[in-house]
């Protein structure tokens, strides 16, 4: 039987259109591959746009829901839908994939067919992760994503690609081991015969169980994010991956982890969340500062950006576990921002790599003269990742900092330090790459960007300034869902100390959440 | 009383010869002592009123199988006097452990066998064991296993041919 | 019946163990097969003893089948030994270990 | 003395298979070498027929030959699986035997006979019958393993298999003899009543159970009784390896489970703990050693050990103390599901190995796969698919199989076991992906380009098609198979 | 609503130049200058509207909402803002004109105009903003502009470094500023000025727990913390000690920039901010004192360094530093009106001085060291005379604008209690030094015989009109601004801060002393550099220690490099290699290697010998049986 939304199956269409593209590529000739790839991904983008238009900001409920029975026992459904949390990420994904195809236009010239296929499968998998409303479905997409990424890195990557690919694959796979078990445990403890995420979010689990599940989830998500101690796969993967790979990796893949926190950890394990918030916050702060600090030491552009990603994702987790509207909305916004900004940076690196075939800063210095247009774009993206006001990242970081500040002045202060560090390494990078003196042996290779490259960077710049100058629309999409999410926590906290809504409990007594956490643990 | 004496004689020889089979360095001697043992096992069967089996024991085991062994030994004329395997000590220990443990178990819990099916047979094994009744059930109750056994023999036959016949493939492929 | 069942059990157990040890200690395949025959005989002793003790023929029939199987195994086994001998000019088990690790 | 017709009808599939085998052996000498394929197709046809016969009788439970044989949905499920596997093996062999120059029609005969043995194993309810079934299956396999007589490895595999097999069946038989003493019969039902009556710590019960577990543990290749597996799998002709790895393992598991549940259902705590230990060891050892293998057949052998470990999780769950009936049957069904899925992916993987030829030999070394994606995209892609599935990564069937096993484990309160299993699934991903890596991310040497070719006979294509269909379809829509397995698990207590 | 155009016009100019710059090239000024011109006119109108005390509020749009946070952007024009508007538009306009000549033929001509247009926009938005976020946004935006403009000639390594340095140091300040803003939100629940000012008084008693959820309970007064944090931003932006190091280096940028950004407008943003947030600062005496002290320190430090520098632009830069010190001090002592007053006049004459330097530099072919100048007063009459005026104003010579503003500033300081009076003394001292170094500059540069590089000693001549006209205008302004009653105008913006009585002994006393100090300074300069030029050298050798201290800017830069910059980079590299890779990553790979190793070990169980296999089976059996026996 079918419990469909009755309406047109938008989500399914968006998610599985890329697969159609794959089929088309298989049928067509090798030369056609990239054209089809581009066509398919653009169509997906076009189809995904109406979601934004038809999205109802008023409700926190899932929208465009489709639900079909898939497996009878245990009842697993094909259930998809979006809310204010997933919608931005879905759009981000659909928006970035065409760019990835474009940037690979000339840089990928071996096995184009397989490349495009991997890219499209990747898109389906990632979209699936963001829209899945059934835990098993989610996990399936979550894992499926590994394969195409593995190939992207391993087949089209740099010198050390195999090592990076296997490391990426095994690390993330091992991470999600506990996730699967946790899913099953939740299933048996929820008291209902369903893997439906929303239903499972409503059920109440004993604090001790929650504590276990929390860490099970944590490992899986933290590896993806990646959070501080689990970050070492990122530099390798980023450096070795082809440009498109890096972009997808940074812009979409990392978001899965933080999305996981938002979608599962917070709503399903409120007590445990409150209990362990301090730990996560600490880790996030460490990630912010540590990542930024590591970036200082890098002479390889991609490595530098990779470590900066660690730092930026630290802001996201920080915001999420601030557990208040500003923090979480800032975090979601920051996911999008990081996608755009870091994506842009990687695209830039890819463009220059195509010319000089080196990622070393020393080889790619002084581009302002020979490639003024490129330099401009690079500066814009760099400044955006510094979190310059008027650009996208500032909004996210600002909100996150507000949220964190309510939780702990100290945490916010340290996090803000990260912003200074970011400025330091990014500007230092600019000073060398953009303004420095060009390396003589490279001069001949430095020609400015062609229309295709400009075309693929312009939209990103557009977003940077749109979000930077008028973030309200994007935020409005989130409000309802985030509010609903926070209510989950409030429910718990009011159990702890009635008559206090979450904001007060943070603003008035910063330490309340900590205390509550302890009690929750004690129970 | 007499029965017990006979049993102990037979058992003693059986164990002895069995040990010799394993202990003797020369395969031929081993085979020979196995032959001796087969006869005594057959004797044991007789004391248990399984005359038919006793006969088969002699015919099949001693007559067929063992001869087959000797035949192969001769065919491949293996020089005797082979050493024991390096692991023999470990093996003996393990065997000992198994023995001790089963004895311990047997003594501690005591061994009880299922109670006789048909008490009507006052002196057990009197009527049973005669060839007729065996044949009877063999072709009625145990028909199905009987057929399977025939298949096993078939397989063995064909398999032996395939494995041993020289230039079988050449002839096929030509 | 004069001889208690335990004696038969002990006997068969002993023979079985001897056979088992034999399989482990001898290197000549033929002797190993002989040891396996010991194990089978031990089984048969059990069956016959039980069947006599319980007074049902099932045990004897089982011996009958076990015997058949033993015969078949011997046939195949010897065939394999011969084929093996063609390759290795030896029938000591530890002489052939192409396949390992 | 008359043979009741009903009984014959009940075992109609067995009769058909045997009949075909005999006909084949008769026809073989009189058919010209060019026509041999006909015989293979004859066997295949028979299997198709049997498939429908069994499928039609699915659901009801009929005993035959005085409760020696039962045809219930449990047995039928396995039989269907066995037909499928044997059929595919036959199809694969048609081409393979030619390539390997061991084109003997008897081969198919052996497949049919050993299939008979397996069918008897899965539907036997009397230890005598089960034992004979095992022997029939094993003896055929001994011979098939040595089929490449002129190759030392093949014969060595055969010999090792034979010696250890005989050894284990000796042990098994002794166990049966003791049980006979315990129950006064070899019928599982009576055994279970006797065992239940005597309870846990009767020495005879204990020893006999120990011996049975050793015997069956050998057949299903559970550590520490697994050691024949790598050598035999590597040495035997690949199609035989497939047959052993899939069919005989499935049949052995089926019989093992039936004996444990119907015979020793009363003393579950007595064996579930043991099986748990074996299960853990098997998981760990299989996966660890597979990491360092460079020969694909051997690697797959170890992986099949590891998979036996996963399947054992199902067995453990059925016997785990404190699990009520629902959980137990979930264990059984998940085990059946897993083995069914495992058959597809293993079949596929071995098929690729069988059809990939370098020089005159088959490409069984990891190195032979280097840069396969360059030359034979299709084959490389399929191999990747099977590897992914074996590693248990969605959306392939392998994931579904693991998923249900883990469900069962967690349901039985063995969460840690589930975690362990998954950790080693991650480990296994390493060696499975290495194959993918070699195929996709390494450049083939120039001579390799010339030497390697794909001996892709039409029949082999069919096999691959089936395997892929299974791996993908069951991965995306496992519903039907799941429900079949669930319903088939019921007859066991 | 019309006044929204004041900032928007420069923005428009920037956008046009940014997109079409490569087309427009040398005609860039045709877009930029008119834009700024019109916004000047509009500013005048705006000014005239608020002159009678009421304010303009122009809401723009809601920027973002999140939870209980709502940020509305808008423009807010009161007298303070109006005055700043005028200053910005005038100086910016003149600098635009001046640039036409100064940057003529520069490859980055259009880019340059684009950037200063952007700067003008940002600066205007900054002064007009009506909430903290907007303030912060443009606070950083102007920083960005200065970054881009300092780095305009990025071929020069020094310029690159200076740009980065400026941005980073500002970032450090902004870090405090940002935290201040956050604290404001947490305390007041809003970020709009008016509501915050409205119930500022209500929150005086409040304290915040510094460590928050981390525990510890370290309570401090919210208001003070807010003010101090925000002031950190001001310290960075207005180059107060200890974050002053970026300003002198910023002189690497083209001179018009130095005039516009690093003298007249951006660097004064800090002072402006303090004045703008007077309602908060007034509530926190502690913060006020800190502001005052820091200002005073900067004042004296800047002066002491300026007296020994030889790069003309740096001299002026350091004087800017110390003048900013004056203003900050004034604000800290509650004399906002006079702080801003001095800010305005200073804006005029300091811009004048910079542009003067510019035209000198232009004349002597981008030579900045005054030891290679001299005797220019005949060759560059206009420059010379305007420069004199500027210097007089800077030295607080009677009847110049500088005289009035500085005088009233010191007076108000004197009336502000003990701290105020000590600082006043310092102020007078500084005034003396100021006079000294500014005239040292004049004498060495324009008097005496020419030491110009002989190659182009002969073609040293007055630059084009576009350069000289702005000089004249500014010269006029640096006189006039003293007479048009700016303080009275500003009074409205700072209720309750009626300037201390202009009459009475204190007033006259201060006036006389300050003037005298100025005159003495000039005299000494004359003595040293005209009468007997050997004195300086003698002093130099006698007081070499002090001399070097001053010459090397108190070694602050070196200290920072040694203490912070270098260690940071070294440490980073070490951490990365020795911790990230050697420990964390190694642990990760170690796990994988571990599994592989165990596999490698375990494979040897598989000896290939059949009987070992049988043995292992037996072992299995034994183990099982033992298990049974034991359990």
Task: Please provide a written account of the structure.
The complex is a heteropentamer of chains A (523), B (174), C (101), D (493) and E (631). By secondary structure, chain A is mainly α. Chain A has 22 helices and two strands. Chain A is globular and about 70 Å long. Chain D has a three-stranded antiparallel beta sheet with strand order 4-3-5. A two-stranded antiparallel sheet of chain D has the order 1-2. With 493 residues, chain D is an all-alpha fold. Helices cover 78% and strands 3% of the residues of chain D. The model of chain E has no long low-confidence stretch (mean pLDDT 86). In chain E, strand 1 and strand 2 form a beta hairpin. Chains in contact: A-D, A-E, B-C, B-D, B-E, C-D, C-E, D-E. At the B-C interface, helix 1, helix 2, helix 3, helix 4 and helix 5 of B face helix 1, helix 2 and helix 3 of C.
Q: How confident overall, as mean pLDDT of chain A?
A: 87
Described by the principal axes of the CA atoms, the overall outline of chain E is globular
Structural class of chain A: mainly alpha
Lateral arrangement of strands in the main beta sheet of chain E:
1-2
- Largest sheet, strands/sense/barrel of chain E: 2 strands, antiparallel
Give the strand tally of chain E.
4
CA(first)-CA(last) distance of chain A = 43 Å
Query: Number of helical segments of chain E?
Result: 25
Question: What are the main properties of this structure?
Answer:
heteropentamer; D: 493 residues; mainly alpha; three-stranded antiparallel β-sheet; two-stranded antiparallel ribbon; 78% helix; E: 631 residues; two-stranded antiparallel sheet; 25 helices; 4 strands; globular
In brief, what are we looking at here?
Chain C is mostly helical and about 100 residues long. Chain C is built from 3 helices and no strands.
Task: Map the helices and strands.
The complex is a heteropentamer of chains A (523), B (174), C (101), D (493) and E (631).
Chain A: H1 10-27, H2 33-54, E1 63-71, E2 76-82, H3 86-107, H4 112-131, H5 135-144, H6 146-156, H7 161-189, H8 197-202, H9 207-224, H10 233-240, H11 243-268, H12 270-296, H13 301-322, H14 325-356, H15 372-386, H16 392-407, H17 409-433, H18 440-443, H19 451-469, H20 472-496, H21 502-507, H22 512-522
Antiparallel strand pairs in A: 1-2
Helix pairs in contact in A: 1-2, 1-4, 2-3, 2-4, 3-4, 3-11, 3-14, 4-5, 4-6, 4-11, 5-7, 6-7, 7-9, 7-10, 9-11, 9-12, 10-11, 10-13, 11-13, 11-14, 12-13, 12-17, 12-20, 12-22, 13-14, 13-16, 13-17, 14-15, 14-16, 14-19, 14-20, 15-17, 15-19, 16-17, 16-19
Chain B: H1 2-23, H2 27-47, H3 51-75, H4 88-109, H5 131-139, H6 143-164, H7 168-173
Chain D: H1 5-10, H2 12-30, H3 36-57, E1 62-64, E2 69-71, H4 73-100, H5 106-123, H6 127-145, H7 152-183, H8 188-198, H9 203-219, H10 228-235, H11 238-264, H12 268-291, H13 296-319, H14 325-355, E3 356-358, E4 361-362, H15 372-375, H16 377-391, H17 397-411, H18 415-441, H19 446-451, E5 452-454, H20 458-476, H21 479-489
Antiparallel strand pairs in D: 1-2, 3-4, 3-5
């Amino acid at each position: 039987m079918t419990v469909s939304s009755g309406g047109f199956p938008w989500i399914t269409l968006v998610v599985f259109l890329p697969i159609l593209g794959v089929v088309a590529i298989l049928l067509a000739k090798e030369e056609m591959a990239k054209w089809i790839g581009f066509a398919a991904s653009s169509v997906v983008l076009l189809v995904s746009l109406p979601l934004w238009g038809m999205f109802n900001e008023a409700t926190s409920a899932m929208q465009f829901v489709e639900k079909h029975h898939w497996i009878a026992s245990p009842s697993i459904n094909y259930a998809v839908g979006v809310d204010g949390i997933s919608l931005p990420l879905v759009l981000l994904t659909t928006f970035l994939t065409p760019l990835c195809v474009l940037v690979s236009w000339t840089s990928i010239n071996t096995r184009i067919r397989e490349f495009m296929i991997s890219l499209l499968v990747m898109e389906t998998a990632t979209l699936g992760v963001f829209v899945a409303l059934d835990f098993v479905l989610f996990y399936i997409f979550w894992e499926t994503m590994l394969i195409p990424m593995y190939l992207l890195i391993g087949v089209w990557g740099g010198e050390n690609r195999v090592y990076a690919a296997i490391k990426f694959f095994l690390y993330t796979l091992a991470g999600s081991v506990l996730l699967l078990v946790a899913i099953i445990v939740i299933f048996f403890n929820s008291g209902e015969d369903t893997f439906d995420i929303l239903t499972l979010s409503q059920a109440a689990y004993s604090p001790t169980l929650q504590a276990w599940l929390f860490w099970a989830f944590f490992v899986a998500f933290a590896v993806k994010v990646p959070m501080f101690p689990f970050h070492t796969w990122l530099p390798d993967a980023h450096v070795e991956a082809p440009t498109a790979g890096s972009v997808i990796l940074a812009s979409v893949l990392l978001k899965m982890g933080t999305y996981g926190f938002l979608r599962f950890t917070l709503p399903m394990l409120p007590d445990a969340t409150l209990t362990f918030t301090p730990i996560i916050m600490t880790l996030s702060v460490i990630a912010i500062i540590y990542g930024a600090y590591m970036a200082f030491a890098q002479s390889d552009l991609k490595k530098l950006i990779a470590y900066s990603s660690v730092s930026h994702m630290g802001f996201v987790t920080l915001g999420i576990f601030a557990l208040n509207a500003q923090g979480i909305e800032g975090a979601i916004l920051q996911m999008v921002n990081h996608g755009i900004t870091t994506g842009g940076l990687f695209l830039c690196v890819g463009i220059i790599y195509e010319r000089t075939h080196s990622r070393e800063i020393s080889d790619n210095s002084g581009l302002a003269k020979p490639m003024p247009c490129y330099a401009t774009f690079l500066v814009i993206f760099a400044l955006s990742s510094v979190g310059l006001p008027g650009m996208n990242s500032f909004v996210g970081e600002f909100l996150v900092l507000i949220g964190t500040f309510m939780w702990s002045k100290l945490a916010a202060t340290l996090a803000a330090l990260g912003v200074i560090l970011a400025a330091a390494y990014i500007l230092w990078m600019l000073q060398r790459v953009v303004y420095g003196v060009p390396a003589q042996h490279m001069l001949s290779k430095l020609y400015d960007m062609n229309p295709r490259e400009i075309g693929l960077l312009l939209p990103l710049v557009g977003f940077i300034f749109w979000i930077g100058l008028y973030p309200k629309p994007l935020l409005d999409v989130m409000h309802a869902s985030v509010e609903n999410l926070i209510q989950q926590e409030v429910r718990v906290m009011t159990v702890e100390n009635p008559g206090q809504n979450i904001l007060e409990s943070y603003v008035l007594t910063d330490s309340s959440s900590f205390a509550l956490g302890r009690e929750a643990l004690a129970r | 009383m007499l029965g017990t004496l006979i049993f102990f004689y037979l058992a003693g020889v059986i164990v002895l010869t069995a040990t010799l089979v394993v202990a003797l360095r020369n395969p031929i001697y081993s085979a020979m002592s196995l032959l001796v043992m087969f006869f005594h096992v057959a004797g044991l069967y007789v004391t248990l009123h399984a005359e038919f089996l006793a006969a088969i024991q002699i015919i099949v085991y001693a007559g067929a199988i063992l001869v087959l062994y000797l035949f192969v030994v001769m065919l491949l004329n293996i020089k005797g006097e082979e050493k024991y395997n390096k692991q023999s000590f470990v093996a003996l220990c393990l065997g000992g452990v198994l023995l001790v443990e089963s004895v311990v178990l047997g003594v501690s819990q005591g061994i009880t066998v299922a109670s006789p099916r048909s008490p009507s047979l006052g002196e057990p094994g009197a009527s049973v064991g005669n060839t007729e009744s065996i044949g009877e059930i063999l072709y009625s109750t145990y028909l199905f296993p009987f057929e399977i056994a025939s298949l096993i023999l078939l397989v063995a036959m064909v398999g032996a041919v395939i494995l041993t016949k020289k230039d079988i493939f050449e002839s096929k492929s030509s | 019946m004069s001889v208690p069942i335990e004696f038969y059990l002990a006997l068969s157990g002993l023979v079985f163990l001897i056979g088992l040890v034999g399989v482990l200690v001898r290197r000549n395949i033929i002797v190993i097969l002989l040891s396996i025959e010991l194990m089978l005989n031990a089984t048969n002793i059990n069956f016959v003893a039980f069947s006599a003790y319980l007074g049902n023929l099932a045990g004897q029939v089982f011996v009958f089948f076990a015997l058949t199987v033993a015969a078949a195994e011997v046939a195949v086994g010897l065939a394999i030994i011969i084929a093996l001998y063609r390759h290795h000019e030896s029938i000591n088990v530890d002489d052939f270990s192409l396949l390992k690790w | 003395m008359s043979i009741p017709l009903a009984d014959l009808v009940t075992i109609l599939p067995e009769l058909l298979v045997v009949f075909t085998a005999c006909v084949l052996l008769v026809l073989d000498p009189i058919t010209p070498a060019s026509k041999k394929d006909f015989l293979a197709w004859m066997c295949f046809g028979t299997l198709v027929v049997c498939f429908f016969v069994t499928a039609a009788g699915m659901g009801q439970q009929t005993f035959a030959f005085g409760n020696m044989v039962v045809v219930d949905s449990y047995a039928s499920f396995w039989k269907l699986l066995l037909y499928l596997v044997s059929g595919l093996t036959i199809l694969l062999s048609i081409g393979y035997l030619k390539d390997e120059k061991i084109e003997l029609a008897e081969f198919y005969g052996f497949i049919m006979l050993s299939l008979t043995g397996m069918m008897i194993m899965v539907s036997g309810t009397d230890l005598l019958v089960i034992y004979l079934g095992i022997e029939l299956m094993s003896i055929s396999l001994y011979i098939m393993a040595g089929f490449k007589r002129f190759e030392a490895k093949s014969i060595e595999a055969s010999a090792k298999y034979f010696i250890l097999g005989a050894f284990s069946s000796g042990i098994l038989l002794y166990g049966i003899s003791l049980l006979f003493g315990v129950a006064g019969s070899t019928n599982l039902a009576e055994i279970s009543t006797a065992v239940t009556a005597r309870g846990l710590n009767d020495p005879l019960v204990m020893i006999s159970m120990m011996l049975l577990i050793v015997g069956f543990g050998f057949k299903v290749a559970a550590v520490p009784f697994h050691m024949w597996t790598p050598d035999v799998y590597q040495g035997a002709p690949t199609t035989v390896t497939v047959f052993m790895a899939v069919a005989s393992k499935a049949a052995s598991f089926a019989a093992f489970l039936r004996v444990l549940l119907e015979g020793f259902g009363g003393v579950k705590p007595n064996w579930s703990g043991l099986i748990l230990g074996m299960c853990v060891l098997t998981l760990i050892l299989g996966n660890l050693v597979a990491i360092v293998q460079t020969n694909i057949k051997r690697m797959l052998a170890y992986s099949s050990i590891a998979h036996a470990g996963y399947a054992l999780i199902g067995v453990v769950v059925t016997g785990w103390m404190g699990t009520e009936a629902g959980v137990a049957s979930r264990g059984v069904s998940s085990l059946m599901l897993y083995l069914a899925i495992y058959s597809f992916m293993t079949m596929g993987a071995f098929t690729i190995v069988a059809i990939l030829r370098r020089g005159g030999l088959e490409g069984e070394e990891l190195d032979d796969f280097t840069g396969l994606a360059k030359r034979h995209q299709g084959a490389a892609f399929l191999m990747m698919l099977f590897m992914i599935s074996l590693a248990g990564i969605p959306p392939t069937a392998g994931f579904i199989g693991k998923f249900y096993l883990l469900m069962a484990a967690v349901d039985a309160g063995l969460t840690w076991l589930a975690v362990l299993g998954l950790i080693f699934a991650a480990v296994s991903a390493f060696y499975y992906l290495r194959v993918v890596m070699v195929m996709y991310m390494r450049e083939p040497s120039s001579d390799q380009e010339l030497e390697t070719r794909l001996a892709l006979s039409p029949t082999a294509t069919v096999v691959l098609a089936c395997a892929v269909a299974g791996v993908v379809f069951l991965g995306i829509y496992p519903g039907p198979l799941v429900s079949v397995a669930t319903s088939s698990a019921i007859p066991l207590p | 609503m019309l006044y929204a155009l004041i900032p928007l016009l420069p923005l428009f100019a920037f956008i046009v130049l940014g997109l079409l710059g490569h087309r427009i090239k040398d005609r860039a000024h045709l877009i930029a200058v008119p834009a700024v011109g019109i916004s000047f006119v509009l500013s005048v109108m705006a000014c005239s509207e608020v002159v009678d005390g009421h304010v303009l509020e122009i809401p723009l749009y809601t920027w973002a909402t999140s939870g209980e946070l709502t940020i509305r952007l808008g423009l807010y024009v009161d007298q303070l803002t109006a005055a700043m508007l005028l200053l910005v538009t005038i100086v910016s306009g003149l600098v635009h004109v001046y640039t036409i000549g100064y940057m003529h033929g520069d490859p980055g001509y259009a880019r340059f105009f684009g950037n200063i247009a952007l700067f003008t926009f940002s600066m205007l938005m900054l002064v007009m903003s009506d909430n903290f976020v907007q303030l912060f946004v443009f606070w950083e935006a102007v920083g960005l502009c200065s970054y881009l403009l300092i780095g305009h000639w990025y071929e020069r390594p020094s310029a690159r470094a200076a740009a980065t340095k400026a941005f980073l140091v500002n970032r450090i300040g902004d870090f405090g500023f940002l935290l201040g803003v956050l604290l404001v939100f947490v305390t007041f629940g809003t970020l709009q000025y008016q509501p915050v000012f409205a119930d500022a008084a209500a929150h005086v008693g409040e304290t915040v727990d510094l460590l928050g959820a981390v525990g510890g309970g370290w309570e401090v007064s919210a208001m003070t913390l807010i003010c101090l944090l925000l002031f950190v931003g001001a310290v960075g932006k207005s180059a107060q000690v200890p974050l002053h190091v970026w300003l002198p280096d910023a002189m690497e940028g083209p001179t018009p920039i130095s005039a516009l950004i690093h003298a007249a407008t951006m660097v004064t943003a800090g002072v402006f901010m303090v004045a703008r947030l007077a309602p908060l600062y007034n509530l926190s005496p502690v913060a006020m004192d800190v502001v005052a002290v820091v200002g005073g320190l900067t004042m004296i430090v800047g002066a002491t360094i300026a007296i020994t520098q030889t790069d003309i632009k740096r001299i002026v830069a350091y004087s800017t530093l110390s003048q900013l010190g004056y203003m900050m001090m004034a604000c800290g002592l509650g004399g906002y009106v006079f702080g801003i007053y001095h800010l305005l006049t200073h804006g005029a004459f300091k811009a004048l001085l910079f542009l003067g330097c510019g035209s000198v530099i232009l004349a002597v072919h981008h030579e900045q060291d005054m030891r290679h100048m001299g005797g220019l007063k005949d060759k560059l009459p206009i420059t010379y005379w305007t420069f004199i005026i500027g210097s007089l104003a800077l030295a607080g010579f009677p009847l110049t604008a500088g005289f009035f503003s500085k005088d009233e500033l010191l007076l108000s300081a004197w009336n502000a209690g003990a701290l105020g009076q000590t600082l006043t003394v310092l102020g007078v001292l500084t005034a003396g030094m100021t006079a000294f170094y500014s005239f040292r500059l004049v004498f060495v540069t324009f008097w005496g015989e020419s030491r110009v590089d002989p190659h182009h000693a002969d073609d040293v001549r007055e630059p084009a009109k576009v350069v000289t006209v702005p000089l004249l205008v500014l010269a006029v302004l640096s006189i006039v601004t003293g007479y048009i009653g700016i303080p009275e105008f500003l009074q409205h913006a700072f209720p309750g801060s009626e300037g201390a009585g202009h009459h009475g002994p204190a007033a006259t006393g201060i006036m006389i002393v300050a003037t005298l100090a100025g005159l003495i300074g000039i005299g000494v300069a004359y003595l040293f550099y005209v009468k007997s030029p050997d004195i300086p050298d003698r002093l130099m050798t006698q007081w070499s220690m002090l001399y070097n201290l001053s010459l090397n800017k108190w070694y602050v830069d070196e200290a920072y490099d040694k203490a912070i910059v270098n260690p940071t980079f070294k440490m980073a590299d070490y951490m990365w290699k020795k911790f990230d890779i050697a420990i964390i990553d190694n642990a990760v790979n170690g796990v994988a290697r571990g599994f592989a190793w165990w596999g490698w070990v375990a494979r040897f169980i598989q000896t290939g010998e059949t009987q070992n296999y049988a043995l292992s089976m037996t072992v299995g059996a034994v183990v099982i049986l033992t298990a049974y026996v034991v359990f």
